[in-house]
Amino acid sequence: xxxxxxxxxxxxxxxxxxxxxxxxxxxxxxxxxxxxxxxxxxxxxxxxxxxxxxxxxxxxxxxxxxxxxxxxxxxxxxxxxxxxxxxxxxxxxxxxxxx
Length: 99
Fold this sequence. Notes:
Elements: H1 2-24, E1 33-36, H2 41-50, E2 62-65, E3 73-76, E4 79-82, H3 88-95
Antiparallel strand pairs: 1-2, 2-3, 3-4
């Protein structure tokens, strides 16, 4: 009797641990508003060239706002630009940047 209760308790404990681990690995909320860090200077320059910013500054502050699907913007040196002003490939690189 004691042996079955002990085995049941151990099985219950292990199943609860595995269940809690599976919940902990759920996908986190996607990042929709972020400041790009100048890790890839060439991307910073390409973005500014595509938006006709002259001269391009590889250390410029670039903030991406993807919170509103109808109004996705990119802010460079406090000037606001629509994401649709950039080529599709560049938009994809910017959207996947924080990942």
